[in-house]
Amino acid sequence: MGRQVTLEDVAAEANVSKSSVSNVIRNHPNVRESMRQRVNAAIEKLGYRPQAIGQNLVSGRTGLVSLAIPNFAQPYFAELARAAVAAADDAGMRLIVQQTDNLLEREREAADSWNLGAADGLIFSPSVIDDEEIEARRGRAPLVLLGERSKLSSVDRVGIDSVAISHAATKHLLDQGRSRLVMIGDKTFGDPFVVSEREAGFHLALEEAGLHEAGPVTAVRDWTREDGARSIEELIDANVEFDGVFCANDLLALGAMSALRRRNLKVPEDVAVIGIDDIEDGQFASPTLSTMFIDKEWMAHEAIRLLAKQLTDPDSIPEQLSVPFRLVARESTASPR
Amino acid sequence: MGRQVTLEDVAAEANVSKSSVSNVIRNHPNVRESMRQRVNAAIEKLGYRPQAIGQNLVSGRTGLVSLAIPNFAQPYFAELARAAVAAADDAGMRLIVQQTDNLLEREREAADSWNLGAADGLIFSPSVIDDEEIEARRGRAPLVLLGERSKLSSVDRVGIDSVAISHAATKHLLDQGRSRLVMIGDKTFGDPFVVSEREAGFHLALEEAGLHEAGPVTAVRDWTREDGARSIEELIDANVEFDGVFCANDLLALGAMSALRRRNLKVPEDVAVIGIDDIEDGQFASPTLSTMFIDKEWMAHEAIRLLAKQLTDPDSIPEQLSVPFRLVARESTASPR
DNA sequence: TATTGTATTTGGTACGCTCCAAATCGGCCG
DNA sequence: CGGCCGATTTGGAGCGTACCAAATACAATA
Description:
- The structure is a homodimer.
- With about 325 residues, the first copy, chain A, is of the alpha/beta class.
- Chain A starts with 6 loop residues before the first helix and ends in a 9-residue tail after the last strand.
- Chain A is built from 13 helices and 12 strands.
- In chain A, strand 8, helix 11 and strand 9 (about 270-275) form a beta-alpha-beta unit.
- Chain A is elongated and about 85 Å long.
- Strand 2 of chain A pairs antiparallel with strand 2 (about 95-100) of chain B.
- Chain A binds a DNA duplex (30 and 30 nucleotides) through helix 2 and helix 4.
C-alpha cells in the first residue's frame, strides 16, 4: 500500500516548490490564482492531507491538551468531560483523556511531566495526590487544576468552594425543619482535602444552628451509588436516628435514596436527602433530588482559558477561581407537612 | 524562560553523541554501564524529557487514537468512553476525544480524514451519517465503527444486533403478561438505521405473540430522559392505553418512569418498563429498571484490538462483530400479582 | 528599452528524535 | 606485541512542514 502522500509529492506533481504548496495550503496572501489552482489540482489528484506531525514539529505545539479525571463514567465527571471537550473545541484544541480511577499511582503518572506525551498542557482533577507532589512533578508545561480549592497559589486552578457549598446544603436541610442530620462521605478515603472541606461546611452549619452535637459522618470508599446505599444501611443497622442526610455528592445521594426506599423509609416524609453536583439523574430520580448546582461548563471554559493563557504567556500570574453554585431544591427535601 | 531541553542538550552536557543518549533512553542492549550513568546524570541534571513530537515524526505514529461519539455526558456513551480509555491504556495508546452531538455536520468532520489530526486511527460511533458517506470520507487511516450493524463489509465494526436485543426485551414484557405495548424511540430523528432495527425487533416479538395490531411507536428527538418523559405524557394525553413500555434505551426508560410517576401510574403494577443498555442508573432507579445488558467493555476492547490490527496490517480483512447482550430483569417489569 | 519597485516563488534550514552504517574501543589469542 | 573480533559509540541522514531571506517574475514608469 502506498505510503502517505507528502507535501513534497504534491510539489513534484504540480511542478512547483514545497514552499508554494505550503503557501497555498496555509493560504498565504501573495499567491497567484494560477498557482493556487495548479497546487489544488495536484492536492486533489493525489488525495493529499497535511500531516499534523510535521506541522507540530515546526511549531512545537500540537493543539492537544491532556485531561486527567478520575472516571469518565461517573456522571459528575462525565458532564465535566462533555463540557471540557466542547470548550476545547471552541478554543481550537483537542483533548487527550486519561482516567485515574482515584488511584494514587495513576494520579502520579498523570501529574508527571513525563507522561504529557504529545499534549501541550494538562488539565487535572486530582483526587488523592497532594498539592505538593503535583507541584514537584509538574514540568514546565502548562497546568490547570480542577476541583477543590488549594493553598497552592503557584498553579492556575478552577476551584470549588466546598465549605460554602456544604454549608449551604446543610443549612437548607435545617431550614426545612430537619434537625437530626447525618452526612455521608468523609475523609477516610479519597481526597482528604475535599472531604474535610465538605465535612467542615456541614459542621459549620450545624454549629450555627446551635446543634453542637454533630451527627455522624460515615466513611465511604468511593463516591458511588453503592457506597451511598451501603452507608444508609449501616446507619440504620446501627440504630442511628436521623431525618436528614447530607451527601458529599449526588451519586451518594441517589444510592442513599435507593437504600432508604428498600428499608421502607419515605423520602422526604421520613428523611430528607440532599447532594452536591446537580447531575442530570437527580432531576429524574424518584423523588427528584435536591442538590447544589455546580457550573461545570463554566469550570471547563475557564480551565481552557487558563491553559490557553499559559500557552500564550508562560509567565502569566496563576489565578485561583471559584466556580459559581446555587441551591436547587427539589422533592427530596420538601418539608414534611 | 528557557526553552525545552532537547536530546542534543543532554548529549552536550554528557559529552557524548545524540545517538548514545537515544540508546540509553530506549535502553538499547549494548550500552556500557558507565555510559548509562553519565547520560542519566545529565538527563537528571537538565530535567530532560523526551518530546513525543520528535519520536512521532520518525515513526510516523503517535500512539493516539481518536474516539468520536455523540455525547460524553450520556450514560451509555460515558460508560463506553470509560471502557475505551481503559482499553486504549492497556494497549499502550491514548485517546483523543470528539463529540458529535448527533449533528450531521460534526459527524462529517469526524469521519473526514482531514480531521484525524495527530491520531493514528479513528473509532467512531456514528449516529446520523450514513455508511456510504463514512466510506467516502475515510482516508487510508485505520477506522473502526461502533454501534449498529451495517451492510458495509469493508470496515471493521463492533456492532450491536438491535433487532435481537429489542426482540428479547419486548418478549420479556410479553412473558410478564403485558399485552398492550408501546415503544418509545423511533426513526424520525437520529440514526435511521438503529431505530428501525430496534423497531423491527419490537414488531417481530409482537407478531410472534400473535399481536398483529402493533402498539404505537413514538418519535423522539434525542434519546434522553426528557424525551422519554415527554413521550409518556403525549401517550397519556392521547388516551392511549398501555401496560408495557419498551424504550429504545435506558435513558428514555428512566424519563418514562419519571413521567409515569408524575401521572400517578405505578411501575410495575400499572405499567411495566424496559430499556436497553444497562446503564448504572437503572440499578438505583425507583423502581429498579429492567434492561438489556450490553457489554461495553467488550466493545471497547474489541474496537481497540481491531484498530491495532489495522495498524499492524493495513490490508487485514475487516471483521464485523456483534456485542454480547442479555436480559437483566429488575423491578420495573415484575409481574403484577 | 532600461529601471525600479512590488508581487510571487523558491531553496534551504530548523524542529527533536530514531536508525543505520561506519568508526572506534577493548580484550584476547597467538 | 600485532591482529582480530565482538561490543560500543558515533556521525549523519532522514521524517513532513513552516518560515525566511533571497531570487525571480512582472508591471509600471521614465
